[in-house]
Design goal:
This protein is mainly alpha-helical. It folds into two domains: about 35 residues; about 70 residues, no CATH class. The radius of gyration is 19 Å and the shape is elongated. The protein starts with 5 loop residues before the first helix and ends in an 8-residue tail after the last helix. The relative contact order is 0.12.
């Protein structure tokens, strides 16, 4: 198996991006429908949602004013991950479930075991 560097992956992604720019948005959409590939980046679960949600839980508990400042942007990010096709709805739901599980798991640790 060959070693692939991050640089090579980024270079290849940029090449694909440059090739895709030759299409109008509606042409590109048609092309991806025909190929059966939507965007190839949806991941399960959404760690965008999971990590942000865990942070929100802790903010709610320990720094409530910051929680309220981050609440709206969090939901914009959740909806954007679906709207722009980076995640499916089920990915975001699984991210929420993972966040709840992690929050309660960490919350049960004794204080001397955290960091």
């Amino acid at each position: 198996m060959s070693q692939t560097t991050n640089y090579e992956i980024q270079r290849d992604l940029w090449t694909v991006y440059e090739q895709a720019k030759q299409y109008k948005p509606e042409e590109f959409s048609e092309l991806t429908k025909k190929s059966g590939i939507r965007n190839g980046v949806a991941a399960f679960p959404s760690l965008h949602v999971a990590v942000s949600c865990v942070l929100l839980f802790f903010m709610f508990r320990y720094v409530r004013p910051v929680f309220w400042m981050c609440f709206f942007p969090f939901w914009v990010m959740v909806l954007a991950t679906i709207y722009f096709g980076w995640h499916y709805v089920v990915d975001d739901i699984a991210g929420f479930v993972l966040a709840i599980w992690v929050f309660f798991l960490v919350d049960r640790l004794p204080d001397d075991k955290i960091l």
